[in-house]
Amino acid sequence: MATQVSHDVIEVAEGLPREQDHTVEKLGNIAPVETNKSTESRSNEEQSPTQEELQTLRRVYGKIDSLIYIIGFIEMCERFAYYGTTAAFVNFLQQDLPEKGPFPKAGAAGTDGQAGALGKGQRTMSALLLFNAFWAYVMPLIGGWIADEHWGRFKTINVATALAIVGHILIIVAAIPAVIAKSNGALGTFVVGLLLLGTGVGFFKCNISPFIAEQYEATHPKPFIRVEPNGERVIVDPGLTITRVYMRYYQLINVGSMAGSISMVYAEKYIGFWLSFTLPTILFLTCPIILVVCRKRYVRRAPAGSALSKAVKLYGLAMKGQWSINPVATWRNLRSPERWESIKPSKIQNRPTWMTFDDAWVEEVHRGIKACYVFLWYPVFWLPYGQLNGNLVSQAATLKLNGVPNDVVNNLNPLTLIIFIPIFDHFLYPALARVGFRMSPIRKITAAFVCSTTAMAITAIIQHSIYTQSPCGKYASDEACQETPPNISVWVQTPVYMLIAFSDIFASITGLEYAFNKAPKNMRSVVTGVFWFTNAFSSALGQAFVPLAGDPLLVWLYTVIAIISFVGGVAFWWSFRELNHEDDDLDALPEGEYAENPDRQKPVLEEKA
């Protein structure tokens, strides 16, 4: 029988004595307490399933508390603010101030004009945008480490919003007409704002996704039996429910990103850049307000001290003497379970002073390392995804647009996500489960590779058709040639955007879920940071394909990426097919005991703020 858990603020203090005598049975655990608040809790009649029932009974979703949707709304506002702001970056940096329009000094050129501001050219624009993307995906590593070891997730999220707000404000200042007139001053202000915004975004990303899932996990950490109205005994599966949490969370992300990126382009075009930067900032200001108002309802974990450094030492101990010049042998050694078994504290007679944890925590770290191995393949997955806002937009410009802006077509991707995430959640995954085919994380990620490979193959075929039918042949991207495009509608790109969206559902959502479920509970932000860092690494990897990103080599670009994606998908499945059968066992590992120092007392429940 489980104990009811409050949605009040619950933090585990690392060994600090308090007057209250609510001791926590395991270091790092969220303490079970009784309150008068209403939560979806396991009643006295709900029992843990037996091993046989786990194998035979149907699994169902649990109820998702409204608090989770509130946190999802915070993320939606953050994504609206980020994408609404960055959508105007290209024209703000690259294009010159228009000579005429409704508000030319603010950069607004109206319907027939080109919005612009600083006029720094394409190279400066590209360099800053690439840096912004790289910076925003490197910062999760640092933000994850700070959260897990020093501040905790909730405090780090609040600091992240403060940094991002200052960054947003500086970017607004750079877009004020009087500041734009001083081009270098505007650029300097903009760059400082970009650094702060990227830092805030990075710190936010690695913490908000584990924070939202922990709200459900706190009340339902393990599967339990529920009797349906028709008498059927089913298993309420927390893992399945957390999958749904992340599906809906990701849907809200795309609602925010699509609404922001489309609407702010028009604000820039008709009013000015200051408005396209200000409106997202105003919406973003609701994030800290909601965080503060609901602060007493959140379940949150205190930081775990030096868990990361101890995990690194543990990994070094496991891999001691296992490295080889033969990469296959090294990979086999890296994944050897025997090595991890041999370094458990119970197996070591003279334990080092830093080994202040039990065997179960070693198992948790090993499981987290397995998740990081899975993420090693994500840079290959992100390569096709990285074509969305660059080369595919350029390809759209060479097709028959019939008045549709070429930089609007790529919103088919978030639109597909918004439509199909509920379809996958309510129909596809349950239908597959009913016929006995469970879409495990490894299967989902493999399916993502299949979708992205197919998308790039279709893109290569479209590009070949453009070269074949264009009056300019293999130089169809020439600006003069775009006035007489081939008779191929831009909507031929629709399956490409849809397939990349499907791959996003299979891999991105699964990656966030995998980081949460497989990381040690006191290292979830770090492992989530590793997941996001793969995107930064993929951006750096994508630079190798820049020489192919232009006429007459674009068919080769998409073909090469399709081949790499295909090989990556095959290699991924071959490498992790065994994990496909271990998923339930890995999720069922008990939480280990962990202490900062061997002499520290058991932690106690911290009083409510």
UniProtKB/TrEMBL annotation:
Protein name (record): Uncharacterized protein
Biased composition (Basic and acidic residues): 16-25, 597-609
UniProt keyword list: Membrane, Transmembrane, Transmembrane helix, Transport
InterPro entries cross-referenced by the UniProt entry: MFS_trans_sf, POT_fam
GO molecular function, a single term: dipeptide transmembrane transporter activity
Alphabetized SUPFAM superfamilies for the sequence: MFS general substrate transporter
Sequence similarity: Belongs to the major facilitator superfamily. Proton-dependent oligopeptide transporter (POT/PTR) (TC 2.A.17) family.
One Pfam family matching this protein: PTR2
Transmembrane regions: 127-147, 159-180, 186-204, 249-267, 273-294, 368-385, 415-433, 445-467, 496-516, 528-549, 555-576
Gene3D superfamilies in the cross-refs: MFS general substrate transporter like domains
Native organism taxonomy: Eukaryota, Fungi, Dikarya, Ascomycota, Pezizomycotina
Membrane topology, from the record: Multi-pass membrane protein
Primary site of residence: membrane
Native source species: Periconia digitata
Biased composition (Acidic residues): 587-596
Span list, region Disordered: 16-53, 587-609
Signal sequence extent: none
GO cellular component: plasma membrane
Subcellular locations according to the entry: Membrane
Keyword Magnesium attached: no
